[in-house]
Amino acid sequence: MPRKKQSIPLMEAVDSLVESKNLDKEFIIKTLKFCLAKAYKKVFLNDGDISDSAVRAELEKVGKEEQFVVYYGRKVLADDDINDDYLEISNEDHDVIAAGKNIGDIYEVKFLLKDLISDNFKGNKFMNSFMTSFKSKIMEAEKKNLVDLFGAKKGELVTGVVEQYNKETREAMINIGNNTTVPLERRDQIGDETFKQGESIKVCILKVESTPQGATIRISRSDPTFLRRLFEQEIHEIYDGTVIIKDIARKPGERSKVSVYSQDPNVDARGTCIGKNADRIQNITKNLGNSKEKEKIDIILYQENKALYIAEALAPGRVVGVAFKTQKNPETNKDEDIAVAVVQNGEVPKTVGKEGVNVYLAVKLVGMKIDVITADEAMKQKLSYKTIESIKSEETDNKQTEIIENYDEEINDEMIENPNVETDEVVETLVDEDVQVDEPKEVVFEEKHNDSNVVDETVEVKQDDDKKQTSVEETSTPHVEIKDGTTMEDLLSKLMSEKEKEDSKKKTNKKSNKKKENQSAQEKQESSSEEKKNSKIMAVYTDEELAEIEREENEEDSYGLDYDDDYDEYDSDDYYKD
């Protein structure tokens, strides 16, 4: 007696798939329905000429549990006309009669899944067809789900758990979340690092691809992107964009060079990355494997000038000069640019580094082949090169020139937008300096006193009629003539005479003078303003000079000049000669 197969607990399989494949339960049930209907049509109907809508599967409660059932529509025919029991049904069938179906109608037949997989040839074929179709659909869904999920994390760091590790082959399987386990290949490990099962490690999602076999995800710890993300996690100035990582050159497990620059002149890019007491750089190196020798990291200041950038990249070697030349590459037969770094005698080993690692990383960092020679060798080759100091000096000069050019450009832009600004400013300057270039000037020799009696003599300074230029330089040397034929000696003599009169008056009117002293400053200011306004007079003495004269006068008992002094030299014509 043939052994009867047990029905497959599909609902248990559904729950398992939801958990293991991280798929939506409704999606899995929908896929099951589709694959059951497809398998039924293929096996029981021989892929007959029947629409897909005529066959459907549903999840229904049968008794106390949910089961999958398949519905199939059969054509109602007379009993004598039936040729295929799977495609047709008699009109005399009691179920057809109960359903009220007539000849030519479609009667839908219901099959329990456990009946379809009963022990017979078609049942086995049906299940094989169903499982093949279902697995394919689940694989496609899983692949799409992983590509969407981890594709969004491409280039980012994730924390994974080591599920398997083989010390001999160095093969590691890492669970990166969402029940997804991917291999960490040997090329993506750091140096000679080892792992322990259950250990948490950081990895970078390097590649996510969709293949016929499923989703392919590559993770790495050796790629430069992994180091870049560590810097971003540890140094917030890099994360927020204040400090920028320009380039990274890396030999995993041995040495890395990271070039940085700051967008804020007040932030030291190199010091920021190293941190106080080197705490930041040490926290980064802790995540670079557990090899006996830790990977070293050089922080390089990025320079726009290629020569200075090369000198920085070759640290700890000390470069004294750089030259550039072009030579043909024997492999590609094309011209390529080469940098020649000149170092001090004895500095070549340090500059090249152990097994050439230092210069190898510098080449990757700057993107140019670099030859390292000593200063003596450069002299033998008669190599013409610029010293680093001269290059820095040129850079400083260029920056200063650039600042000036930018300033001039801003001024020009301002003049274009506001064409009257410069003219107005010049006019204001001339007005402030009491310079009127379009009209005759008058120079007033004023002798201020503390009373209201002020003697003024005016000397007019005229410009030649044929000179109409308005520059300040020309107005500083005008043609001078004295009105009414008065000479300078006559003018000074008259002033001295007036002084004597004033002194005499002041000796007899001390009380009046004290009162007038309080008013002298205001009168002096009003008199000066009135004279400038009405007669466009320019004072010979400045306010400071007048104040000094007044102070000296106040210091003398006579409240005037000391006439015991010898003024013969002022009477000489030679004194006023140019």
How are the secondary structure elements laid out?
Blueprint: H1 10-20, H2 25-44, E1 55-62, E2 65-77, E3 88-90, H3 94-99, E4 106-112, H4 113-116, H5 121-151, E5 157-166, E6 171-175, E7 181-184, E8 200-211, E9 214-220, H6 224-234, H7 236-239, E10 243-251, E11 255-262, H8 269-274, H9 279-285, E12 296-301, H10 306-313, E13 319-329, E14 334-343, H11 348-352, H12 357-366, E15 369-374, H13 375-380, E16 386-387, H14 388-417, H15 421-432, E17 441-447, E18 455-461, H16 472-475, H17 488-508, H18 510-535, E19 537-539, H19 543-554, H20 568-571
Parallel strand pairs: 2-3, 11-12, 14-15, 17-19
Antiparallel strand pairs: 1-2, 2-4, 5-6, 5-8, 6-7, 8-9, 10-11, 13-14, 13-16, 17-18
Q: What is the spatial order of strands in the main beta sheet?
A: 7-6-5-8-9
- What is the straight-line distance between the termini? 145 Å
Please, what is the average pLDDT?
77
**Secondary structure: helix percent:** 40-55%
Please indicate the percent range of residues in DSSP E strands (runs of 2 or more). Answer: 15-25%
Continuous helix count: 20
Molecular shape: elongated
- Low-confidence spans: 1-7, 426-485, 511-516, 530-539, 556-578
Q: From the helix content, strand content and strand pairing, which structural class follows?
A: alpha+beta
Radius of gyration: 51 Å
Biggest sheet overview = 5 strands, antiparallel
**Total DSSP E strands:** 19
Describe the overall structure.
The protein has 578 residues and is an alpha+beta fold. Helices cover 41% and strands 24% of the residues. The chain contains 20 helices and 19 strands. It has helices spanning 10-20, 25-44, 94-99, 113-116, 121-151, 224-234, 236-239, 269-274, 279-285, 306-313, 348-352, 357-366, 375-380, 388-417, 421-432, 472-475, 488-508, 510-535, 543-554, 568-571, and strands at 55-62, 65-77, 88-90, 106-112, 157-166, 171-175, 181-184, 200-211, 214-220, 243-251, 255-262, 296-301, 319-329, 334-343, 369-374, 386-387, 441-447, 455-461, 537-539. The strands form 5 sheets. A 5-stranded antiparallel sheet has the order 7-6-5-8-9. Strands 1, 2, 3 and 4 form a 4-stranded mixed sheet that branches. Strand 10 and strand 11 (255-262) form a beta hairpin. Helix 6 (224-234) packs across helix 9 and helix 10 (306-313) packs antiparallel against helix 12 (357-366). The longest helix is centred in the N-terminal third of the chain and has 31 residues, at 121-151. It is elongated, with a radius of gyration of 51 Å. The termini are far apart. Mean pLDDT is 77; it is low at 1-7, 426-485, 511-516, 530-539 and 556-578.
